[in-house]
Amino acid sequence: MKKIILLFIVSFTSFQLHAQLFVGGVALENLPVGMYISVCPEYNGGFSSCKAAVDYGQGRHTFGHVQKLFYLTDEKGEIRKFRSGVAILNLMIKNGYKVNFLESAHSCNLYYK
Fold first, then answer.
1. 26-43 residue pLDDT tens
2. CA–CA separation, 21 and 41 (whole Å)
3. Contacts of residue 107, Cβ cutoff 8 Å, sequence gap at least 6
């Protein structure tokens, strides 16, 4: 019994947790490997907070909650707020994305997985 508990503890602590990233209700982890995405920080009235606009070729829609279709959201569909473009960059890397093109943390950057 002790071996089973120890195995469970070791496997749980070695499991790397990461936040799921959604855009318009689509989990980015479900996109094909090798697909490029563009992520642009959009600052709200100054540099105190920003949201991340994402383009993975999903097309444009003119109905419904257009704004939520293009921004990183949580699993509940709430738009994620970030303190800076660097926070977005760190989140993308933490979730397995690699930087393909980085102009600066304050402009659009290309990633791939």
1. 899 888 888 999 999 998
2. 15
3. 40, 41, 85
Q: What is the pTM of this model?
A: 0.72
Q: Report the C-alpha gap between 20 and 101 in whole angstroms.
A: 23
CA 27/CA 12 separation, integer angstroms: 23
Let me know if residue 5 belongs to a domain.
no
Amino acid at 86: V
For residue 110, which of 38, 29, 40 has the smallest C-alpha distance?
A: 38
Cα 59 to Cα 78: distance, rounded to the nearest angstrom: 20
CB neighbourhood size of 45 (10 A): 6
- When divided into structural domains, the chain yields a total of 1
Residues of the chain with pLDDT under 70: 1-19, 46-47, 60-68
Q: Domain range for residue 31?
A: 19-112
